[in-house]
Design a protein that fits this description.
Pfam families: PMD (PF10536). The protein is mainly α. The protein has helices spanning 3-12, 17-28, 56-61, 83-87, 105-111, 118-127, 142-149, 170-177, 193-204, 208-218, 225-237, 241-255, 285-300, 312-322, 331-338, and strands spanning 100-101, 152-153, 158-161, 164-166, 222-224, 265-267, 307-308. It is built from 15 helices and 7 strands. A 3-stranded antiparallel β-sheet has the order 2-3-4, with no helix packed on it. Strands 1-7 form a two-stranded parallel sheet.
């Protein structure tokens, strides 16, 4: 419609000018495109261009995302390897289908003594790690933990829930584990097998030959948790309190906040944290625990990963804290138990 035709139409119309413009302005501007967006066969709304000059073939070539997942993949760039993407097609995690989640709660029950010698108790109390002696769950709900791992996204470091995003915070760690969240944040450097042997000799009080044989059996810069417990028992009996305390604390963190995906080993580099038993109280153990869990969650969300490292007790307690009814019997079930049915 030309401008002259529009003026002529307004002269013959009895409509107010404002209403007339609202009705006929789109025709003056050359028409308008429908903004109705229809869902595709997979139930998702395809991404459409806002450029009016784009051709229909270019719009059809734009990515439409993943079925059951995000349609905008500019942020979740690793979604192709996400376990949720494979679960959508019924692939699970391969033949075993389940994520292996293990805790050391039962082992710690037998390894952590009810009372430490006073010489060790003072160091353990000042270290800020004393609460870990009694916080581990004896049984981990693998299905519950796996359900939340499948909602974790590395790019946002958060769980994507139907109502939004959630994540574990330092305040959660402090409240649930009673670990200090203020202090020095220090990431231990990677160590070689040779250095792992030297650290064991200097700070655990073992012989050179014993340390070499053990590190070689671990096939890397690791110590076995059971081996550390034996060293702790040996030095406690010999009243070598510094060696016994280091072995005990390394076994403690290796079974909890620094748990490895092997579930039997601890990285030798963490022994560097306990070189100075009087100074290890200055570390932010809560931050270290959270970073370690984040790192392992960043592995476990991948379809190819089969184990979850870190401290599963922290994750499960966080779930129960914010989702108290998950995994518990609903009110309907309780009512059914109290219903008295008439006799036939």
């Amino acid at each position: 419609m030309a401008a002259s035709d529009l003026v002529s139409a307004f002269a013959q119309s009895s409509l107010p000018f404002v209403l007339f413009v609202l009705v006929y302005a789109p025709f003056l501007l050359g028409g308008f495109e429908s903004v109705v967006r229809r869902r595709g066969a997979d139930g998702r709304i395809p991404v459409r261009t806002l450029d009016r000059g784009a051709s229909s073939s270019a719009a059809a070539a734009e990515p439409t995302g993943y079925p059951g997942g995000p349609y905008d993949t500019s942020l979740l760039v690793k979604y192709e390897h996400h376990v949720a993407q494979h679960i959508w097609f019924g692939e699970e995690r391969g033949p075993k289908k389940e994520l292996k989640v293990a805790g050391h709660g039962l082992k710690l029950t037998s390894r952590v003594p009810l009372a430490l010698p006073p010489q060790m108790e003072s160091w353990v109390s000042r270290s800020g790690l004393a609460s870990l002696q009694r916080t581990s769950l004896n049984k981990i709900d693998t299905n519950l933990v796996s359900a939340f791992v499948e909602r974790w996204h590395l790019e946002t470091s958060s769980f994507h829930m139907p109502f939004g995003e959630m994540s574990i915070t330092l305040d959660d760690v402090a409240c649930l584990l009673h670990l200090p969240i203020r202090g020095v944040f220090w990431s231990p450097q990677d160590v070689t097998e040779e250095l792992a042997v030297e650290l064991a000799v200097d700070y655990l009080g073992v012989s050179q030959g014993q340390a070499q044989s053990h590190v070689r059996s671990c096939r890397g810069s690791y110590y076995k948790l059971e081996w550390l417990y034996d060293i702790f028992v040996h030095h406690r009996a010999a009243s070598s309190w510094a060696y016994a305390t280091r072995a005990y604390l390394l076994m403690l963190v290796g079974s909890t906040i620094f748990a490895d995906k092997t579930f039997t080993l601890v990285e030798a580099r963490y022994l560097l944290l306990f070189r100075d038993l009087d100074g290890c109280s200055g570390y932010s153990w809560g931050a270290a625990a959270l970073v370690t869990l984040y790192r392992y969650l960043g592995d476990a969300f991948m379809y190819s990963c089969k184990q979850l490292g870190g401290y599963p007790t922290l994750l499960q307690c966080w779930i129960h804290e914010y989702f108290p009814t998950v995994g518990k019997e609903g009110r309907i079930g309780i009512l059914l138990e109290t219903v008295v049915f008439p006799e036939r």
